[in-house]
Amino acid sequence: MRCYICGGKKFGKRPGKVRDNSKLSVHECHSCGLVFLSSFSHITEKFYQNSKMHDTMPEVEAWCKTTRWDDERRFKFLASAMENRDLLDFGCGNGGFLVAAKAAAARAVGLELETRLTPHYESRGLKVFKALSEVDCKFDLITAFHVVEHLPDPAKELRRLACFLKKGGHLILEVPSSDDAMLKLYESEPFSHFTYWSCHLFLFNRDTLRLLADKAGLKVDYIKGIQRYPVSNHLHWLSKGLPGGHQKWSFLDSPELHAAYEKQLASLGLTDTVIASFSL
Ligand SMILES: [Zn+2]
Questions:
Q1: DSSP bridge pairs for 139
Q2: Cβ 206 vs Cβ 274: under 8 Å
Q3: Does the pLDDT of residue 48 top 80, yes or no?
Q4: Rounded to the nearest whole angstrom, what is the distance from the C-alpha of residue 32 to the centroid of ligand 1?
Q5: How remote is the CA of residue 108 from the centroid of ligand 1, in Å?
Q6: 219-251: b or e for each residue (b if 16 or more CB lie within 10 Å)?
Q7: What is the reported pLDDT for 60?
Q8: Dihedral, CA atoms, 95, 205, 245, 60, nearest 10 degrees?
Q9: What distance in angstroms lies between residue 201's CA and the mean position of ligand 1's atoms?
């Protein structure tokens, strides 16, 4: 086995475990720092079409509520960039971001493999393709939120996606960070038994995301750290060893505190999420 990014052959095993598959372990490349699962054989071609990612098949409306905060955050971040532009949201999930994007973009369409969602898209008036082979036009912006880490050959898929960019267009990627402070700074053991998931084949940080762009033959416009979970969530993990602190202890949070915490974590490269813009 060689590192997908740098071809290195030496890996360390990360502490923790893959929460839903005890046979897998989490490797980290000694040369480039790429984090990846020890095997990808559990991901078959039909895995996502059949909603296997969601083991309990979430009810769509309840699912939309859980992603509303992320949908709004992403919309605010990209609102000016998408104004009067054509946008494709690759791996659009429940379509929450697309509903918001339609208000600003000239055209906002999605692509999603999960087949059970078709009636939901129709009810929201969303145009969602089932495969890239169906897409017959180009876009100013292609977004992919928490998608790239699921792909067994992400550089190949990014190159393919970039063929659907208009001249001067941008690919916007958001991924969970392999350098999350909960892992790299606080070294929370309970968190390391909770966060790794068999669907996340790779985890990137700012450096390995840049190397991924190189491998895909794409230019990096920017890479920046975003903190999704607030300080209440982190303190709860460190105190109780359990998730959900952002709900149970939400009284600890404020927009000012979150902005300051995010800024500090970003300056250290320790946010839980990374957002990047690539172009041809
Ligand atoms: Zn490597």
A1: 165
A2: yes
A3: no
A4: 4
A5: 36
A6: eeeebebbbbbbbbbbebbeeeeebebbeebee
A7: 86
A8: 20
A9: 14
How many angstroms is it from 28 CA to the middle of ligand 1?
8
Distance 170 CA to ligand 1 centre (A): 26
Contact 166, 138 (CB under 8 A): yes
Average pLDDT taken over every residue of the chain? 95
Distance 219 CA to ligand 1 centre (A): 20
> For residue 237, which amino acid is it?
W
Q: Which among 108, 253, 260, 271 is positioned nearest to 181, based on CA atoms?
A: 271
Given CA atoms 33, 35, 36, 37 in this order, what sign does their dihedral have? Answer: positive
Q: Following DSSP, what letter does each residue of 145-213 receive, concatenated?
A: ES-GGG-SSHHHHHHHHHTTEEEEEEEEEEEEBTT-HHHHTS--HHHHTTS--TT--EEB-HHHHHHHH
Read off the pTM: 0.93
Question: Ligand 1: distance of its center to the CA of 7 in Å?
Answer: 6
147 alpha carbon to ligand 1 midpoint, in Å? 20
Q: How far is the CA of 247 from the centre of ligand 1 (A)?
A: 37
Of 38, 148, 35, 34, nearest in space to 90 by CA: 148
**So what's the pLDDT on residue 155?**
98
Is pLDDT of 198 > 80?
yes
